[in-house]
Amino acid sequence: MTQLTIAPRGESITFMGFPHTTDLDGLAAHVAIIGMPYGDPYSMEEVDNDQSNGPTAVRRASRRVSQNLDRWDFDIGGTVFDGQAIKVVDVGDVRADPRDLHGHFRRAEEAIRKILRVGAFPITIGGDHGIPIPIFRALAEQGPLTLVHLDAHLDWRDEVNGVKEGYSSTIRRASEMPHISAIYQIGIRGQGSAGAGEVEAARRYGAHIVTARELEDEGMKEILARIPEGGRYYLSIDADGLDPSVMPAVGAPQPGGVTYRQTIDLIKGLTNKGRLIGLDLVEIMPARDLNDITSITAGHIILNVIGAAVRAGYFA
């Protein structure tokens, strides 16, 4: 049996102190937390960038998110597990090998496939925004899927420095996968790597681009109403999609982003109108954080996803 993941980096801690296992073949859980520290770098300087420390930072900060999951959470509307016997495990981080620079993407895909195979809900902590690409591949048997992408940036570059699976190409790669039938991009604003050609490619595909201004004018309830009812959804959250006031620790902060409240409304809306089958939360740069607020916000988002899935009857 090939070991796909290793224990959480640094201190021997897991997200929220949940049990740890690397035995994905014998996995028995409702929810699996997995770290994917490494993407596909554009240069040697990016091989071990600060985003690779994101999973460790979020796990460490989770001790400040909640000291006891039996306490009432007013964002969720009760306790996280709602009195149910929900099992959450932390399966550690996808293993990387400097002698095989793309092997971690293969292991990431296989790890997510194993998690889905036992009916568990995968929650992935990145890592840069290239890491959802192997996750999208692992979702091939889950389609047709609607991809909901929360980000400041479009991420439709075809390649950068010859790299086609980096963090600026994530949604372009998703658009090429037949099991992803629709893409909604929420919170887009400011300037990023997209030029006129990338915007045209996204529009030609039929991506539903919701700018931060449009979200502010229309409200999340209206945006949710545009997403087909009764579908299967996957949610990919780039930390810079949220406003820097709640997620400052990012590489390219853009003012006027999605609020924490809007993010929670999006999560609740998706879980109530159909089946949310997974989440990734990426692009956190811990060295730029302030009082761990970015990692703490990430922890609250993860607990809200679990709490919403419990209340939607996913694990009944």
Structural account:
The protein has helices at residues 54-65, 103-117, 132-138, 170-175, 196-205, 212-218, 220-226, 260-273, 293-311; strands at residues 5-6, 31-36, 88-94, 121-126, 145-150, 180-188, 208-211, 232-238, 275-282. Helix 1 (54-65) crosses helix 9 and helix 2 crosses helix 3 (132-138). It has one domain (5-311): Arginase, Chain A. The relative contact order is 0.18. It has 9 helices and 9 strands. The longest helix has 19 residues, at 293-311. Strand 8 (232-238), helix 8 (260-273) and strand 9 (275-282) form a beta-alpha-beta unit. A 9-stranded mixed sheet has the order 1-3-2-4-9-8-5-6-7, with helices on both faces. It is an alpha/beta fold and 316 residues long.
Considering the chains and any ligands shown, give keywords for the structure:
single chain; 316 residues; alpha/beta; Arginase, Chain A; nine-stranded mixed β-sheet; 9 strands; 17% strand
In round numbers, the mean pLDDT is 93
Strand order of the largest sheet: 1-3-2-4-9-8-5-6-7
Assign an overall shape: globular
Q: Return Rg in Å.
A: 18 Å
End-to-end Cα distance: 31 Å
CATH topology: Arginase, Chain A
Domains, number: 1
Strand content: 15-25%
